[in-house]
UniProtKB/TrEMBL annotation:
The lineage of its organism: Bacteria, Bacillati, Bacillota, Clostridia, Christensenellales. InterPro entries: AAA+_ATPase (IPR003593), ABC_transporter-like_ATP-bd (IPR003439), ABC_transporter-like_CS (IPR017871), ABC_Transporter_VariousFunc (IPR051782), P-loop_NTPase (IPR027417). It comes from the Bacteria. PROSITE patterns: ABC_TRANSPORTER_1, ABC_TRANSPORTER_2. GO terms for molecular function: ATP binding; ATP hydrolysis activity. Residues 2-230 form the ABC transporter domain. This is ABC transporter ATP-binding protein. Gene3D superfamilies: P-loop containing nucleotide triphosphate hydrolases (3.40.50.300). Keywords: ATP-binding, Nucleotide-binding, Transport.
Length: 282
């Protein structure tokens, strides 16, 4: 499988935080969900990909080239939505489109206006006067309107109600109909990632815990609910993490290591992340 982005042993050091040997791929035709708690290293990794932070080690290849050697035209093939206000606040959406036309040689005015119409966003309203959710929609519209091959979305659905989030997810599905396209998306709304992602990359304390196909994770892990005595009889190598209460034990386990007779439920992505981060170790 070909990749649009390849990250190998990426390192970045700050005074109180460090990325350590982060490696994963963003394949063509795939959506990669990037998960982890606040401060885990997601934004630092994204900043290194986008060139707004300089790595201290490792490599990033985009479209088969070292990221530092991309031309302006190649960089314009990366659409970006950050979880912050990232468009000129004193301009209306029509004026923002005019600026984008000057920034991107492949700017598609008709596509931009179509997305604004689909999102019910007014061309004559200043960006600063939009609601938080409308600002996110406008940023997504801009990111999709310069013929991008890769989208990098950091909390792109933050502040949106469920209907608006589904509108954005539908547009991302449409974007992914082209098998040359890829998406890297981070979100604290894990249910959105469950819907759209092919792969999950989980980062914790600056290190990648796993990078796996979403469906393979569901086959690999399960949530076990049992009494304390039953739990004590388990092979502890079958347990990733657990929580204990007066009612018994809940644990994230490797499904194939649990004997018959135990109740093992399906593990959602959020369960997997929480037990890796907060669960006690056997």
């Amino acid at each position: 499988m070909e990749n649009n982005i390849e990250i190998r042993k990426l390192a970045k050091r700050y005074k109180d935080f460090a990325l350590k040997n982060v490696s994963f791929d963003i394949p063509k035709g795939a959506v990669v969900g990037f998960i982890g708690e606040n401060g885990a290293g997601k934004s630092t990794t994204v900043n290194c990909i986008l060139g707004s932070a300089n790595p201290d080690g490792g490599s990033i290849r985009i479209f088969g080239k070292d990221a530092s050697r991309l031309t302006a035209a190649e960089r314009s093939e990366i659409g970006v939505v950050l979880g912050e206000e990232c468009l000129p606040k004193n301009l209306n959406l029509k004026q923002i489109g005019n600026i984008m036309r000057n920034l991107f040689a492949n700017w598609q005015e008709s596509a931009y206006e179509k997305y604004l119409k689909d999102f019910s966003l007014p061309l004559d309203k200043k960006y600063k006067d939009l609601s938080k959710g409308m600002k996110q929609k406008a940023a997504v519209a801009a990111a999709l309107s310069h013929d991008a091959r890769v989208l990098v979305l950091d909390e792109a659905t933050v502040g949106l109600d469920p209907v608006a989030r589904n509108e954005i997810l539908d547009i991302l599905y449409e974007f992914m109909q082209n098998e040359e396209h890829s998406i890297l998306i981070s979100s604290h709304i894990v249910s959105d990632l469950e819907k759209i992602c092919d792969y999950i990359c989980f980062i914790h304390h600056g290190e990648v815990v796993f990078f796996e196909e979403k469906d393979a994770l569901r086959e690999k892990f399960g949530v076990l609910k049992c009494g304390v005595s039953d739990f004590s009889n388990l092979d502890k190598g079958a347990v990733v993490g657990y929580t204990r209460s007066e009612y018994g034990v809940w644990a994230l386990v490797y499904r194939d290591k649990i004997p018959a007779g135990y109740l093992v439920e399906r593990a959602e992505i959020e369960d997997i992340m929480l037990y890796f981060i907060r669960g006690e170790r056997p």
